[in-house]
Each structure stands twice: as C-alpha cells, then as structure tokens.
Design a protein that fits this description.
The structure holds 2 protein chains of 2 kinds. By secondary structure, chain A is α+β, with helices and mostly antiparallel strands. Chain A folds into 2 domains: 74 residues, Beta-grasp domain (Ubiquitin-like (UB roll)), CATH 3.10.20.30; 66 residues, Orthogonal Bundle (DNA polymerase, domain 1), CATH 1.10.150.120. Chain A is built from 5 helices and 5 strands; from the N terminus they run E-E-H-E-E-E-H-H-H-H. In chain A, a hairpin with a 2-residue loop joins strand 3 and strand 4. Chain B is of the alpha+beta class. Chain B has 3 domains: 241 residues, Aldehyde Oxidoreductase, domain 4 (2-Layer Sandwich); 150 residues, Aldehyde Oxidoreductase, domain 4 (2-Layer Sandwich), CATH 3.30.365.10; 304 residues, Aldehyde Oxidoreductase, domain 4 (2-Layer Sandwich), CATH 3.30.365. Chain B is 28% helix and 22% strand. Chain B is built from 17 helices and 28 strands. Chain B starts with 26 loop residues before the first helix and ends in a 6-residue tail after the last strand. The chains are: A alpha+beta, B alpha+beta. The interface between A and B is large, with 59 and 65 residues.
C-alpha cells in the first residue's frame, strides 16, 4: 500500500511503489489536469509541486513521495484563480492548452521562491515544452507578474 | 468553450449536393437540429445559430478545437452579422452529425472547379479521398479543421450568411408582431427596434417566431466598414478552462470500467507481426489481454503504466516488408536520380528553360528539407468500446464526422452502429487530419478484439514519434539566367514529390521565362500534411534561391525582390512594411545578420525579417523576428497574432533542430531528447504587424510558417557568408544556442 497526500487529501492506494506518480494521479486518483507528454522528464507537461518544488511526475516513483505534500493544477488555488492563472487569461497565453497545467505549476513554483524573476532566471527555470509556441506570451505574463511581485 | 457533450444521433443521411444556400436551412432541418442539439428554451433560427429565451446566442461550430481560437473567431463573425450583444454569445462544438457537416469548407475549395479531379483537391483533404470520399456530394459531409480554412470558408461563406439570414428572420418576426413594415426596423445588441416608435423586442422573445420564416439564401451582408465585432481583439472563450486543468482532451476521457492499452507497432512501416512470445508477461499484475494485430502487438491492462511496461517487455518479431535496408541516404540517392531523369513539367512560361540561354547562367543549386514529425503535446490516443454490436469512440481528431465513418469502416459496421465523441485536441498541426488515423484504427481493432469494456489506447511519445505521417523530405534544384541589370530572365526549378506536383512551387516574382517541374519519388515512409504543407518546403527553396540570385547580382535582397513584385502590389506592400518595421537599412555589427523572406500561403501573405548573431565559435542565436501579414480581413487581431507567433516558433524549431532520419527502414528518433523542441530560452523577441486589404480572406494557422526558415538561412548568410541549403541548421557548423535542458 502507498500513502499519498494530493491537494491536502490523503489516499491509501494499492499500487506498486515504482508506479509513476503521473499515472497514479491520473488513473488512480482521477485528476486529469496533470498531463502526459513524453514520459522521460523532457517536456514538463506532468509538472506538479512536491513540497512546493516543481517536479516532473512522469519519472517520480510514488514510493519516493509518500510523506510529501503533492499539489496538482486542481489544487493550485483553494478558490478562484491564483495571479499566474489570471495573468495567463489576461495575456491570452494558451492555444491548445495541453502544456499549460505544467507551465503554470512550474511558473507558480518559481514565483513562490522568487517573486521578481529576471528574464534569465525565468528562462533557466522554465524548461517546459509548448508546441503551439506560447513562449512570447508566457514571457510577457511572467514579466507582468514579476513587476507586481504578486505571483 | 462548449461544455456540452457531443451528441451523435440518427443515421448518416444522404449527403446533400446543395452548394449555394446551405448556410440557411429549410424548416425541416431546423426541426431536426432542435431535436438534436437544442436545450429547453433554445431555438435554432438558421444553421449554426441558436437563440435562447434569455437572449443567449449559441454559435454551433462545425470544427474541432485544436487551439487556434476558431471557437471564438467564428462566433465573432456570426455575432457581427446578427447584431448580437457579444456579452451574450457562446460557442459550442457541432455534433458529429451530417446535419452539421461543413458544406462551406467544400464550397470554399470546390466553387468554380467544375472539373474537379483528385489532383485539384487540396493536399490536406486528400486523405478523405483515400478513404473513398470522391464525389462533390460526399464532400459536403466534412467537418475537417485544417488548411487554415475555418475563417475563410466556414466563417466567410457559412457563419456570416447564416447569421445575416437569422437577423432578417428576426426582423420579419418583430415587424409581424407589431404589424409594421420590416423596413422601419433595425437591429442592435440583440434587439429589434421599431425606429418610428422606439419600441423594441429582444431576440429571445422573437426566436420561436423567427424560425417559422423561410430564410433567404442570399441575405444582405455587412460591408467592411460596418463591422462592430469582427476586427475586435476579444478574449477567447476556451482559455479559462485551459488554465485550471479542466479541458477534457481525448487522453482525459473517463468511462466506467475503462482499461488501458499500450502498443508496439512494427518499426519498419508496413511490416508484419510474425510472432510474439507472451509468456514473458504472464502473471504480471493487471494484464487483461494481449492483442495481436497485423503489424503490431498491444497489451490491455487495468492501468496504463502496467500496459506500457508489459508491452515494453515483449519481444515481438516483425518482418521488414522488403524495406529493412531503406535509409535517409538511399532515399536521397533515389531523389537525386529522379531529379536527373524523371521530371515532368508542371508550368512553362515564355521560353521555359530555353530562357537560360538569354543571360548569365546560374547552374544547378540544390536544397533539401528533412522528414519532420508533428509531435503535438498530447500523444495520439483514442478510447473505444465495442459492446452489443455497437461501437463508441472518443478521440480528438481534425474531422469528427469523417472519424465516425472511418471507425465504422475499420470495424465493418453500419454507420448507425457507430458513435463518435470528438474531444478537444492537445495540438494538431495536421497530425490528426483524415488519412492519418492509425491511432483510431488500432484503438478500434483492440476494442473489437476485447469487447465489453472501454479501452483507452495511448501511444507512448516514442510510438508517436516513430509512427507519424511525416512532412516529406524533399529535394529541389534551381537554375537561372540573369540579365545585364542582374534581374532574372529565366527561372528553372525541378523538385521531388511523394505524390502530385505542388502549386506552391509557383512563384510570385515577375520573371519572363519559367519552367517548373516535379519528379515523383514514392517511398514506404508515410507522409502527411504538416502545418503549411507544401509551402513549408517550397517557401524555403524559392526564398533561399531568390536570395542567392540577389547576392550573386550584388544587389540588396530586399530591393531585389521588390523590383520583381511590380505585378503584385499586396505582396510588395507586405515586403516593404516588413523592411520598414525591421529597420532593414540599419547597419549591423560584425557577426550579426538580417534576412528577409516573403511567402503567400492559404491566401495570407507573410514576410519575416529575422535577425541573428553568430559568435566567433559559430554559436547561432536568433535575436528577433519581425513579421508582417496581410490576410485581407482580420477577425480577432490578438488571436491572429497568437497564430503568427506560434507559426514562427513552430517553423523556427524545425529550421534549427527538426530532423527525422530513416535507418533500417524505420525512424531513428524517438522522443524529445533526440527530436528536440525549442524552449523558452531559445525564443526570440517576435513582433507582429497586421495589414488589412481588399484581398481574399486568408488563413491564420499556417501562413506564418513558410517564410521563416528562408529568412533565417538568409540571415545566417548575411552574418557569416555561409549559405545553408540543407535544413536543419544544427547539422551545419553552428551550435544552436539555448541548450536543451531537463
């Protein structure tokens, strides 16, 4: 049995300890906002927070995060939208939207640690892939958030 | 965004051959539409337009959402002609039912083509031809999203006509209610107003009466100066559901008792499964079925990771379909030979290649582009359930109605036994168009082999990369002759093609003698439409060669093109605007360069100016892209800019890094570690400028792609003197800046 705490809820699950966190979140717990993109930690579509840090869940064995606070896009905000989500709407960031859960998890973790990231810090930190090419708008949205420090 | 289910009811009716006036329906079809897709209190007034008692206008969009914003731009076009209050307009996906088939798409391409042949059908629709849709009448049964066609066909020919017809019917209903002449009434913000008295009635109060009138097949449309909602940068309806993780993509479908499938397809395309020892996974947890298919083996399990790990443990034996020795090198040799021996002329102007004798000859310069995968972020997937003789399928594709017919054919079932639920797509770029549905075919076959429970098949990224329908690799050779002024007297071009000659090889420049021809070199590698299709390669070839001619003639590449655009004022304006916005004549320091290119595709004219820095170690950095586009009419300027930005980055990714190679008959690349994508750190500053004109309405999704690679290669030449004739740039002596990071 594996004990996982996701978005504040404790789940006791009959899964292998080496099962990938991504698929346990999606198929066992039923939260599908976290996406599968590559399976090898290249693209970041599966990014979640583990104790507040952005982590790629597709290569994270569930056994390694049993005592951690795990947050997914569904648990990002207790109610309404966090400022980064609102900035994504204001700047009309998403196109197909598939990578944006992972983008928002990565960006929210960055802003929590550093409310005023420079362009360079943003580029070093956010290595997620978006095939639609929303990078210019992500950059504009994060610049706006960095200016206010409200991310 | 539509939140409602896609309803699929009833049998596929006889395809209508009505071409003109399809956007407004006779009343019998309105009754059917109400039964199919209206909630209590809602009323279809014409095709695609529903009005509810509370004045909510719902625009039913006969396309699918792959991220381009058409679920907002098409409602904008309808709402404008309807004089609707934009705050009360919603969008909804059309059911996969022939009642909502996209006749305007067919009309947009077929109108005026009396002698339609397979060759005259645009490439992005040819897959439907392969599936047996051959007549014009059957074309009316399309719900295809592709070819940058939504706004220019569905919007211009369908939505606006339907909405303008609905507006006239609402006016008639109000005039009858008041017993006044219709001419005394006008419409504004979802109300009909009686001008002499100021009385008004809300659309919601009139919808039921209005639906009783026969719609005019030629309602009066607004002139360009009368638009109020078209041309406004409105916020997209779908975006709020894309920032909170609630958009339900195909991969997110949940059904009771659902199982998961993972697949291993023969690495060599078209090869057969000879044997597979399933003993190695016997007793593994959660395994429900092993399904052997002609060219693949699939494992069905209670959880996806268990299916994925089990199928990876199998050691299936495939034959090689006599293609096991094919490689990128052997394909290149065949293409080279074909260019020397098998070229068939497609266009001759003036003296054709005889014009080469008229001036100073430029001898055979050859360019190549590689195979490319689409790699949308959502890997290919489909969920299928075969139970009690009926098949239900959920998936994101670029044609819901066609997908239903395709699944019926694969399952060998009548259409009325097949239901197809079209889901939003995590990217398309052409990958999910008709003719490219291996994921649907496998999902249906697995469901038929293991009936009784829904099974979700998900390709791993490796299977997605290695079993795509690739942008073909193409070779193109050019010759020219230059007159005393350095301008070309003759333009001769021979290129390879996997199927038919490409109109995109034809040039806009005023050159008196031209000869353009193609050599057909089919291979066993499946190819398909990749964002901007043929323009993605001919744009690079033509705009690289014209740049070479300019440098050869010691002319400025911008001025050289400009001198050849006397007959094409719209193109000339786009080119001049791009040069002006980019500061073309501003000198650049050592190691930096600026390149320009101009391509019209999908009726939109786009020029890019790209600026690069190449440091002394050969590290290439793309600094800035200035884009000017003339699509004739811009419906949602912010949405259009987003599509141009996306096109630039998609094309830049391909030009810098994109390459699928063939080894031993199979694709050598597998995932984002060896088929690399641009990331935020690699992304240049991008400026988009839009021009409007009286030209035909052009597309948004694709036209930003074709001119990018040549503008980039031309910039590299300006910076370094090195001419790149073979993409991608990573294969040359440049280290592309912005390392791929974990």
């Amino acid at each position: 049995m594996v004990r996982l705490k996701v978005n504040g809820v404790v789940h006791t699950l009959d899964v292998e300890e080496e099962a990938p966190l991504l698929w346990v979140i999606r198929d066992e717990i039923g939260l599908t906002g976290t996406k599968f993109g590559c399976g090898i930690a290249q693209c970041g579509a599966c990014t979640v927070h583990v104790n507040g840090q952005a982590q790629r869940s597709c290569v994270t064995p569930v056994g390694s995060v049993q005592d951690a606070e795990i947050t997914t896009i569904e648990g990002l905000s207790a109610n309404g939208l966090i400022p980064a989500q609102q900035a994504w709407i204001d700047h009309q960031v998403p196109q197909c939207g598939y990578c944006q859960s992972g983008m928002l998890m990565a960006v929210s973790a960055l802003l929590a640690a550093n409310p005023h990231p420079s362009d360079e810090q943003l580029e070093q930190s956010i290595t997620n892939i978006c095939r639609c090419g929303t990078y210019p708008r992500i950059r504009a949205a994060v610049r706006a958030l960095a200016a206010t420090g409200e991310g | 965004m539509p939140t409602r289910r896609n309803i699929v009811l009833g049998a596929l009716g006889t395809a209508t051959a009505l071409v003109v006036g399809y956007a407004v329906w006779p009343s019998g079809r309105i009754r059917r539409a109400n039964a199919l897709d209206a909630e209590p209190g809602e009323q279809f007034v014409t095709s695609w337009i529903k009005i509810a008692n509370d004045d909510t206008v719902t625009v039913v969009v006969p396309h699918c959402d792959m991220g381009t914003g058409i679920f907002t731009s098409l409602p904008q076009m309808a709402a404008d002609e309807l004089d609707a209050d934009w705050s009360k307009v919603r969008a909804e996906a059309a059911p996969s039912d022939p009642l909502f088939a996209n006749g305007s798409l067919a009309e947009g391409f077929i109108l005026g083509q009396r002698d339609m042949t397979v060759e005259s059908i645009p490439a992005f629709l040819r897959g439907t031809v392969a599936n047996g849709f051959r007549s014009v009448a059957e074309y009316m049964n399309l719900q295809v999203t592709g070819g940058s066609s939504a706004v220019r066909s569905t919007g211009m020919l369908g939505m606006r006509v339907a909405a303008a017809g609905a507006r006239e019917m609402l006016v008639k209903a109000a005039a009858a209610r008041w017993n006044v002449p219709a001419n005394d009434c006008e419409t504004k913000a979802s109300k009909v107003v009686h001008l002499p008295t100021g009385r008004n009635l809300r659309y919601g109060e009139l919808a039921s009466d209005a639906a009783n009138y026969d719609p005019s097949s030629h309602p009066k449309l607004k002139g360009k100066g009368e638009f109020k909602i078209i041309g406004r940068p409105v916020q997209r309806f779908d975006i709020p559901r894309k920032v909170d993780g609630t958009t339900n993509y195909g991969i997110d479908v949940k059904q009771p008792g659902m199982l998961y499938a993972a697949i291993r397809i023969s690495p060599v395309f078209g090869a057969r499964l000879l044997s597979v020892d399933t003993g190695v996974i016997k007793g593994k947890r959660g395994i429900a079925h092993v399904v052997k298919l002609d060219d693949a083996v699939a494992v069905v399990a209670d959880r996806y990771w268990r299916a994925r790990d089990a199928v990876a443990d199998l050691e299936p034996v495939f034959d090689d379909a006599a293609n096991g020795k094919v490689s990128s090198a052997t394909i290149r040799d065949r293409r080279t030979a074909a260019l020397n021996h098998d070229v068939k002329n497609d266009l001759k102007k003036g003296q054709g290649d005889g014009g080469l004798a008229l001036g100073r000859r430029i001898e055979a310069i050859t360019y190549t582009v590689p195979y490319l995968a689409h790699s949308p972020m959502e890997p290919m997937n489909a969920t299928a359930l075969f139970k009690d003789g009926a098949l239900t399928v959920w998936s994101g594709t670029q044609d819901g109605l066609g997908s239903r017919a395709f699944c019926a054919k694969v399952a060998n079932l009548p259409l009325d036994k097949v239901t197809f639920h079209l889901q939003p797509m995590g990217g398309g770029f052409g990958r999910r168009l008709p003719g490219q549905w291996n994921f649907l075919e496998y999902a249906v076959k697995i469901a038929m082999a293991a009936p009784g429970q829904p099974i979700k098949l998900i390709f791993t990224r490796e299977q997605d990369t290695q079993h795509d329908y690739y942008r073909p690799n193409v070779m193109s050779a050019f010759w020219a002759s230059l007159g005393p002024d350095g301008l070309p007297l003759a333009w001769v071009n021979s290129y390879t093609t996997d199927d038919d000659p490409n109109a995109e090889a034809h040039i806009v420049y005023d050159i008196p003698n031209q000869s353009i021809g193609a050599a057909k070199v089919p291979t066993h590698i499946p190819t398909g439409a990749w964002r901007s299709v043929e323009a993605s390669w001919h744009g690079f070839f033509v705009e690289s060669f014209i740049d070479e001619l300019a440098h050869d003639a010691k002319k400025d590449p911008f001025e050289y093109r400009r001198a050849l655009l006397g007959s094409s004022p719209r193109h000339k304006r786009v080119l001049e605007t791009a040069a002006a916005k980019a500061g073309w004549n501003t000198p650049m320091p050592q190691g930096r360069g600026r390149g320009i290119a101009l391509v019209e595709s999908f009726k939109t004219i786009v020029a890019h100016v790209v600026e690069v820095t190449v440091d002394p170690k050969g590290t290439l950095k793309v600094d800035r892209v200035v884009t000017v586009a003339d699509p004739g009419l811009v419906v949602n300027p912010d949405g259009f800019k987003a599509q141009m930005e996306g096109g630039v980055i998609f094309a830049l990714t391909a030009a810098l890094k994109g390459e699928i190679t063939i080894e031993n008959g199979a694709v050598a690349q597998s995932n984002f570690n060896d088929y690399e994508m641009l990331r935020l750190a690699d992304c240049p500053e991008i400026e988009i400028h839009l021009l409007e004109s009286e030209g035909p309405v052009g597309g948004a999704g694709e036209p930003g792609v074709p001119p990018l690679a040549p503008a980039l290669a031309n910039a590299v030449f300006a910076a370094t003197g090195v001419r790149v004739r073979d993409l991608p740039l990573k294969n040359h002596s440049f280290a592309v800046i912005g390392p791929s990071k974990m």
